[in-house]
């Protein structure tokens, strides 16, 4: 069974932040994602998850750079100390929220050697956490799936894999279904996304129903986050969601049984 999460960074923006959790649960999501859960007390966020009966699917690291610099610096030469310091800060949030996956942002520039050293340190520092990488064309050192595949092979860690963003795959000229099949067991998180000027998944040529069926048939067990900007309200654009499974009726006990 697939696990769907609502990315509250973009979904349910028509509601106050505190109300988005229960709205996501009522809409049929089993979890939520937040790219940057660092703005408030982490226990408050955990309490909202528990009260709504939701799991925490995914987040990004490192915490945001409030000076306005591009996010991420895992590939930046000379930035290893900063990477480790902010990574440990992120882990304090992750220990409370228990995300299904954490995407490591590489930053806009750097070199492969620095990135490999930081990735090897990260997966060893937090072996119980699952980390992902994703190409982010136009603003990231990591620009292609070929480059990502080489990094995964070099690090060779069970807790490091791919975050498949469907909009990114389409922008790179790859079908999300083909990317999922190529990476197989290295697939750790999926984001159903759309280009910035579009809305709702599927408008970029992705057969959402077919894609979800493919993931389920392949035995994918990670989270699938809805990560797009709705045209109107979030609820009005959820027609792509599969129907919730119907629980089998309980058998009545026979009298005296």
Q: What does it look like?
A:
- It is built from 8 helices and 8 strands.
- The protein is an alpha/beta fold and 257 residues long.
- The chain has a single domain (3-237), classed as Divalent-metal-dependent TIM barrel enzymes (TIM Barrel), CATH 3.20.20.
- It has an 8-stranded parallel barrel, surrounded by 4 helices.
- β1 (3-7), α1 and β2 form a beta-alpha-beta unit.
- α1 runs parallel beside α2 and α3 packs parallel to α4 (112-125).
- Mean pLDDT is 89; it is low at 246-250.
Mind sketching the topology for me?
Blueprint: E1 3-7, H1 17-26, E2 31-33, H2 42-52, E3 55-61, H3 80-97, E4 101-104, H4 112-125, E5 131-133, H5 145-155, E6 160-165, H6 166-171, H7 176-183, E7 187-193, H8 208-217, E8 223-227
Parallel strand pairs: 1-2, 1-8, 2-3, 3-4, 4-5, 5-6, 6-7, 7-8
Helix pairs in contact: 1-2, 3-4
Helix content: 25-40%
At the fourth CATH level, what is the homologous superfamily? Divalent-metal-dependent TIM barrel enzymes
Task: Please work out how many helical segments DSSP would assign.
Answer: 8
Supply the helix-strand structural class: alpha/beta
Q: Name the CATH class.
A: Alpha Beta
**Uncertain parts:** 246-250
DSSP, total strands: 8
Strand and helix order: EHEHEHEHEHEHHEHE
Largest sheet: 8 strands, parallel, barrel
Total separate domains:
1
CATH topology: TIM Barrel
Strand order of the largest sheet: 1-2-3-4-5-6-7-8
Task: Label the overall shape.
Answer: globular
Distance between the termini: 34 Å
């Amino acid at each position: 069974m697939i696990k769907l999460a609502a990315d509250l960074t973009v979904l349910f923006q028509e509601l106050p932040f505190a109300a988005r959790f229960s709205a996501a649960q009522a809409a049929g999501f089993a979890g939520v994602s937040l790219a940057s859960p660092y703005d408030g007390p982490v226990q408050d966020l955990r309490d909202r998850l528990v009260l709504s009966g939701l799991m925490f699917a995914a987040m990004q690291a490192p915490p945001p750079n409030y000076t306005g610099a591009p996010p991420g610096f895992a590939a930046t030469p000379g930035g290893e100390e900063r990477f480790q310091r902010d990574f440990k800060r992120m882990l304090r949030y992750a220990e409370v929220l228990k995300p299904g996956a954490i995407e490591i942002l590489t930053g806009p520039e750097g070199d492969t050697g620095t990135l490999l050293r930081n990735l090897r340190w990260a997966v060893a520092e937090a072996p119980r956490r699952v980390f992902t990488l994703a190409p982010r064309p136009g603003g990231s050192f990591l620009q292609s799936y070929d480059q990502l595949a080489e990094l995964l092979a070099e690090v060779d860690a069970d807790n490091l894999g791919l975050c498949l963003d469907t909009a990114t795959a389409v922008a790179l000229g790859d079908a999300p279904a083909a990317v999922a099949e190529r990476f197989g067991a290295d697939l750790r998180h999926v984001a159903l996304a759309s280009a910035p000027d579009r809305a709702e998944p599927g408008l970029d040529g992705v057969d959402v129903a077919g894609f979800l069926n493919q993931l389920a048939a392949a035995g994918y067990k990670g989270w699938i986050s809805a990560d797009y900007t709705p045209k109107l309200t979030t609820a009005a654009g959820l027609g792509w969601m599969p129907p919730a499974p119907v629980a089998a009726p309980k058998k009545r006990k026979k009298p005296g049984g």
